[in-house]
Amino acid sequence: MSNIKSVAVSYDPAELTDEELVERAKVELFHITKAYEALMARYQGTLFNVCARYLGNERDADDICQEIMLKVLYGLKKFEGKSKFKTWLYSITYNECITQYRKERRKKRLMDALSLNMPEDAEAVEPDYKEKNGLDRWLAYVNPIDKEILVLRFVAELEFQEIADIMRLGLSATKMRYKRAIDRLRENFSDRVEV
């Protein structure tokens, strides 16, 4: 164990690639978390933004981010490196967000069925275009699949092949769905958006 510690503290994580940090983390974990923490620090902000945009609120996003980080912690030793670490991380993120989204949707349907939903005379609240900026205001008006592709492309800044791998789609299907999502935004908001 002292050998692991001497190897682990003899490097600067900022100078290593994701792949090098993954290899270090596989050796270090669970005694030392330096490489793992460096990996998570690199992606923490983007990871949170992706989750917040998928789920629509920061509270759920924070909870899901914690779940994702735990899954990465316990799954890192099994990560085979067949894809980039970033792709693997966002694949976990995608799956966790989809699971949470489905739970929330089931909960809403249950509340509606039990008549615990909002009274009919209550006003529906629409996002105010003047208050919200950027991608968030548009994501409220696209379907879930379009939202997933746009978030992975613009927030996670993934390549189309990485998005295709995460969503388990073909590359051409991914590009076509992306194009359709952009076209829908242009059609619906042509006077307000420049994509």
Automatic annotation (TrEMBL):
Pfam families: Sigma70_r2 (PF04542), Sigma70_r4 (PF04545)
Keyword Coiled coil attached: no
Domain of life: Bacteria
GO molecular-function terms, A-Z: DNA binding; sigma factor activity
Keywords: DNA-binding, Sigma factor, Transcription, Transcription regulation
Location of the RNA polymerase sigma-70 region domain: 39-106, 138-187
GO biological process: DNA-templated transcription initiation
Keyword Electron transport recorded: no
Similarity comment: family membership: Belongs to the sigma-70 factor family. ECF subfamily.
Protein name, per record: RNA polymerase subunit sigma
Species: Thiopseudomonas alkaliphila
